[in-house]
Amino acid sequence: MELKVIGQSEDNTAESGCSSSGCGGSSDQLSHLPEHIRDKVHNHPCYSEEAHHHFARMHVAVAPACNIQCHYCNRKYDCANESRPGVVSELLTPDQAVKKVMAVAANIPQMTVLGIAGPGDPLANPERTFDTFRQLTEKAPDIKLCVSTNGLSLPDQVEELCKHNIDHVTITINCVDPDVGAKIYPWIFWNNRRIKGRKGAKILIEQQQKGLKMLTDRGILVKVNSVMIPGVNDQHLEEVSKVVKEKGAFLHNVMPLIAEAEHGTFYGVMGQRGPTHDELQTLQDKCAGDMNMMRHCRQCRADAVGMLGEDRGDEFTMDKVEVMDVDYEQAMIKRADYQAEIEAKLEAQKKSANETFIPLTALTTKKKETRPVLMAVATSGGGVINQHFGHAKEFLIYEASMTDVRFIGHRKVDLYCSGGDTCGDAETTLQKTIRLLEGCEAVLCSKIGYEPWEVLEESGIQPNGEHAMEPIEEAVAKVYAEMAESGQLEQQRQADQLQAGA
Amino acid sequence: MAYEIIESCVNCWACEPLCPSDAIFEARPHFKIDAKKCTECEGDHVDPQCVSICPIEGAILNPFSEPANPPGSLTGIPPERMEEVMAEIQSR
């Protein structure tokens, strides 16, 4: 087995400045992209693992209509506590949406991106979607615009899309095989008819592929989203990845199916399960190839506001926005200053990381092989460990190994509305969190209470509050080095041993 | 004779631009069809347009006051399965 050693391989350091994929995330994660694309995405929170710590996005819900039905979607649902795509609390007119965007941009200087993602299909509501884009291009030229679509009417809208300042389009493509599609899409609305089953799925797939090609031919960035549905398209998504990459998509984002009976979706009611953390990660690894995966994707609501993983929508409801006084000229200057400051800070961090990222080098002089370890991190953003264990609404998962520290994904605590105290089982929040952290051997946070500390330890997860305010990757590397030093990584994980023995 | 939108409508706007007779209009608490204008799309389309795009089973009644999209016809969820699951959720 060949092991790359940080700081010793010249190729590695020359290429990216740091061979840890987590270190200097955006340059590494996006390093395969041509310069002009990197320029477009480096401060886009959804596309860059690093940028999402520092930049914010918002979605405006101006597009209620949809022209297809997906088995993971229920058009009836609207719950303020729900966090998943397709769910919104307040539908906006284009004029209202523009007001809201300007109010948010004036108050959240980190906001770089405005997306229209639904709650229906933005391109099935072309007037409302394009009216919003038209006004924003004029009134808020410093904001990047993006749109997502199921692709059915994409070929018809490409010309119009090109007229606006839109540089990112996301197409949700769950399959390239109509037989698989028939199990995901019960119907589409096409040429004035509702078309069901395989026939409908076939048309949808053709339109998606045609639209994808038309966009990339015109130099518009296209990201492809896929929902991983075990037993339906999980085996098929590798093929999807290959096909969309050939057609020029610059990112493929494989997301887990969200399905609960209370959502009232086909998959939820029929008991279709979502993938486990492990299954998702394995598939993302397989699809990765030389195309990047968006492991930090949060599957936001169609009216989300703020940094990924947080939602400040409540501060910007229409009644509040209507009475806000916004001087956008002034706000633009402030925003530009703020964002330049962040960029400078990131640049400095990248440089210093280059110099300080040595603990693993020391390790590799040891001959003994140590196994990779998953660690959970509590952070509220900024790329540092800065959150109390008990306050964490999600944990970022990193894999540390002898060669590098890699961002794997995130796991959310108590994500879904369970309808109050109706849940019968008496599982506590702490127990739920421990189940959530399955597979992790350490959890890094700024602070942690005595009781959870004990319970975590008993469950084989080592709590660690010693690296508060430190950059995540460095801290994870240090903890890994300590674990390796103590010899515990030369054996199988304790929990696994117990399981194997049982 | 005309189609009719009832209270289970979710106000998604999908039907409104499709109506060849401009019979559909935004209203509270839900969209409505002007019965005097509705032609059931005869002469314009093979299928009634609102019924063909509506995502909500039961939200549109046909001229005989029956659901134009009956339970299970759009989602593929067998109605008995839906009842069973909803009862189970209620009893939690």
From TrEMBL, chain B:
Matches recorded under SUPFAM superfamilies: 4Fe-4S ferredoxins
Residue stretches making up the 4Fe-4S ferredoxin-type domain: 1-30
InterPro entries xrefs: 4Fe4S_Fe-S-bd (IPR017896), 4Fe4S_Fe_S_CS (IPR017900)
GO molecular function, one term: metal ion binding
Keywords: Iron, Iron-sulfur, Metal-binding
One family name in Pfam for this protein: Fer4
Protein name as annotated: 4Fe-4S binding protein
